[in-house]
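Appendix B, Record 12. Input sequence as logged:
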Amino acid sequence: MTVMTTLQKEEVRYFYEDEIYRIKRNGAVQFGMVIEDSEFASSDEDSDGEEKEMLVAGRIRVAWHPNGEEEVVREKNVGLADRSLMPGDVVRRLIAGKDTQRGYCRDVNVRASVEIVGTQQVVFDVDSKDLNPLEEFTVDVAVCLGSWVGMIKSIDLTLTLKFSDGSICEISDEDASELEDLTDKRDDDCEFKRYDFYPGQVLSGQLKDFELANFTFCSEEMKNLRNASNSKMKSCNLKAVVDKVKVTSVTVNWQCQAYAKDSQSLADLNDRQPMPVIQEAQLEKLKMLNVFEPCTLQIGDRNYYTLKTDDIIMMREEWRKLEKESYLKVGSGKSNPNKKTVNIKTSDMIKKRPEGEESTADEADVSDTEKEETAKATVTPHNTGTSSTSSKAKTSVPASTLSKKKKLRRSRKNSDRSTVTTSFVDLKPGDKVIVETLCTRSEATVVWQDGSIEEKIASRELYPIHALDDQEFFPGDFVVRTSINSELGGKYTYDPHSYGVIQSTDHLGRTCTVKWFRTYTTGNEPQPLFVGTTLEPVYDLKDHPDFKYRPGSIVIRVANFNDMSDCTGGQVLDNYTSGQVLVWWANNTTSACWPQDLYKIGEYDSDDGELWDDNDSDSDEEGNLSGESWETESEHSVKDIDSSVNFNMDMDDSNMRSKLAASIERAGIAITKLENTYNDKTGSTTANCAKEFWRCIRTAKV
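Logged structural output:
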């Protein structure tokens, strides 16, 4: 068990993928994304051979939007614009010096200001649920096809390109990756560089880059160029506009099959496994399991957006001024603007930078000074072409250090190229445009350990918890009660037919209120039997070894179907204190299921991009009181249906570890309470001896 001081936890203010801001010397607000913090610094193997400045406490590595310049800055020199949170993430209130209770995010609502690509027009305060991904499918995301569940491994696209002379060709996305995107001049290694293809995109390349393209219509001019033997002609640059993007095939690694109402036998099930390569009409039936996609929105992301009648559209400079004023405003946490408060008076603002900001001479915004050309062919607002696919994988993850998404970049050639932009295009409601996210605002609904639920908490007010001990429980968690059985050699046991559902937790008192249930059996009413409610010390409880459901878990239904035969694969939305699990199914329906009704087949793991690497077993091995994994006795030791499942532990060693862990925990709680009482009762002037005393106390808590 590790006991961390509050001071240690607050040494790191910002974490990976948090959105931060600074107000520059020229008065402009600039947003960036944390790509590395001192607590979870990248290893040498992840540095791609580049020497990077080592991070120390109080410093972070930031990529500044839009051009992705990376810089190591002091945390005190920037402000937090938006916390990177996902449903299931564990958080606490950001209160200095207080060991406050934990909670988990039940829901995260993200709103954003987005810029129409190729213009300087900004759509203000857009709901992320209204943004549609450019990619129709995404690699490393679970999918359903009928009753089968698998994970996308690769996607093949065909692009239809139109040239200025009227020529039309079809080219694969692999060959098109050699072409330059004239609507995006950022370097290939830029954090905000995207490699999606979409209708209206302007691509450029030498004639030889189009050799493998299939020309469905070729003008005389294009024929002459293609037939020319002159090498100089072969190297001439051509521009083309993407007219259509079509998914030709999706390769899926199938994992398992859920219940199918028309299944006749096991052999019948095996014969029906789909082919790994899905094409044509089957693509329409392929459903992605990525229900938390809107929560993954970050600055730099590009999406489709359909304009609405109540949208607020302004020029980029007007938006920057509004954002600057919102961050300079003095007052409570209501400084961020929205559609209702967009008319903010500048007289109410006080110009103030984040504490201790250090400005540099080269802070000028590149996007303000760069040369912009009028677009000859730019993003068409009326375009309603089909979606393309992205080379980045977005993930839905629970409370952990996992990121929201992992970007897989295709290689491209470096060249001098200018951005194709225009300051203004005529827009009207209903137009479908390509937008890039400039900044985000998130609000979370948090379920606290004491059972209370708080809605619309600004993410900036929350502090993520990345390391939890084995005794932190939350409402809705499934647990078992453990005990030592001396007749079985001092091994820990639990009743496999009994489980509890956490109702509330006393964070400082280390107790839980638990509802206990008995599992239902075949032939009985398919509903667990409620036994009673008890108050339990956290040290007697363990996470249920089978019912490890959390937001984002990929599940299939294995029992208690009723009229839910079409609900094959789905994702867990939340666990409720009633003992049921809320699941979103691939057919876009939701249902509340008992934990016995489900089988978890995997968790998204954005560190590896692998869905099926379930790390729960590893965390159990590290987190349980003995440091050893759960093991069951062989079937020969089962005497009756109520026999227990045992831990393979030595009783003496286990007792010692358990008592030591509990003693350390109680000591830490006592010290925390004493420190809080001392801070409340004493004034700002404190004797040196008292200061030294509390320094020793904090050291002892480590």
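The longest strand covers residues 237-257.
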